[in-house]
Design brief:
The protein is of the alpha/beta class. The chain folds into 2 domains: 146 residues, HAD superfamily/HAD-like (Rossmann fold, 3-Layer(aba) Sandwich), CATH 3.40.50; 103 residues, Rossmann fold (3-Layer(aba) Sandwich), CATH 3.40.50. It has 10 helices and 15 strands. Strands 5-4-1-13-14-15 form a 6-stranded parallel sheet, with helices on both faces. Strand 8, helix 6 and strand 9 form a beta-alpha-beta unit. The termini are close together. The protein binds magnesium ion. The site of magnesium ion has 7 residues, from loops.
Length: 260
C-alpha cells in the first residue's frame, strides 16, 4: 500500500479556504488502508493545531499525522541545551518538548549563553527580538532555521515568510543557517521515521505539493514520487528545471483518482 505525504497549504486548503474534494480524497486513502502523513513548513502553529483543523474539516483520522518544520528544527536540538527561539508557538513548544531550555529574548545576558538559536516565522518580530537572536549567534549559538519559504500564504495576499526572518539573522551575523524543513534532510528523516513507526512501506511513497522548489525537491530527498498540484501557489520561486515531476494534476482529488 502506498504511503502519501501531503503538503497542507495549497493541497488541503488555501489560506482559510478548503480546496474542494481534498477531504474526501484523504478519507478515501485512509479508508482503503493507505498511510497518510501531512508535512507542512508552517512552523507557526503546533502539529495538534493543524490536526484539529483537519479533523474539523472532516478528515477521519488525524492524530499524529501532522509534522511541521518546527518539529524538524527541534530534532536538531539536544535535551538540556539553552535555546533562543525567534519564532512562534509551534517552534517554541517543539524545542521545549525536546527538553531544551527556552531562553527569554528580553533578558540580554542570557541570550549570549545560548547553545542554539532557532528562527522561523515570527509574527511578533521586532528590532529588539531580532537583535537578541543576532546577539546569541554572534556569541556562538548554532543557527537553525525551520524553513526558508519566502512568503506565507494567505487567502488574500502573500505575507513575508520565515525565509525573510531567517535572511535578516543570516545577514546580520554573516552566518548561514542549517535549514530543517522541506526540502531538507531533517524533515525527510522525520517523515520517514513517522511513517516507519506507522508500518508504512518506505519504498512506495508519494509526495503531493504545490511548490516544486520545496515539495518537489523534498520528494527527491524522501525517495518519493512527486505529484505537483495546481491548487496552490501560482508563482514558484527560482529555477525548478531539476525537479522530477511524476504527475501534474489539478488537485489532490485528481491525484488520488489518477494514482489510486
Ligand atoms: Mg504548499
Amino acid at each position: 500500500m502506498t504511503a502519501w505525504v501531503l503538503d497542507l497549504d495549497g493541497v488541503l486548503w488555501r489560506g482559510a479556504v478548503e480546496i474542494p474534494g481534498s477531504v474526501a480524497a484523504v478519507n478515501a486513502l485512509l479508508g482503503r488502508g493507505d498511510q497518510v502523513l501531512f508535512a507542512t513548513n508552517n512552523a507557526w502553529a503546533e502539529p495538534g493545531t493543524h490536526e484539529a483543523r483537519l479533523a474539523a474539516m472532516g478528515v477521519a483520522d488525524t492524530e499524529g499525522r501532522a509534522i511541521t518544520s518546527a518539529l524538524a528544527a527541534a530534532s536538531l536540538v539536544d535535551a538540556g541545551e539553552r535555546a533562543v527561539v525567534l519564532g512562534g508557538p509551534g517552534l517554541r513548544s517543539a524545542v521545549a518538548a525536546r527538553g531544551a531550555q527556552v531562553l527569554e529574548l528580553d533578558r540580554a545576558p542570557s541570550v549570549e549563553a545560548a547553545d542554539v538559536c532557532l528562527v522561523g516565522l515570527d509574527k511578533d518580530l521586532s528590532y529588539a527580538r531580532l537583535g537578541a537572536a543576532v546577539r546569541s549567534v554572534l556569541a556562538g549559538a548554532r543557527l537553525i532555521a525551520s524553513n526558508t519559504d519566502p512568503t506565507f500564504p494567505t487567502d488574500t495576499e502573500p505575507l513575508p515568510g520565515a525565509g525573510a526572518v531567517v535572511a535578516a539573522v543570516e545577514r546580520a551575523t554573516a552566518t548561514l543557517a542549517v535549514v530543517a524543513g522541506k526540502p531538507n534532510r531533517p524533515m525527510a528523516d522525520l517523515a520517514r521515521a513517522r511513517l516507519a513507526a506507522r508500518g508504512a512501506d518506505l519504498d512506495d511513497l508519494v509526495m503531493v505539493g504545490d511548490r516544486r522548489s520545496t515539495d518537489g525537491r523534498f520528494a527527491a530527498e524522501l525517495g518519493a514520487r512527486f505529484v505537483h498540484v495546481r491548487s496552490g501557489i501560482r508563482v514558484d520561486d527560482g529555477d525548478q528545471s531539476d525537479v522530477a515531476v511524476h504527475r501534474e494534476v489539478d488537485d489532490l482529488a485528481a491525484a488520488v483518482a489518477e494514482l489510486g
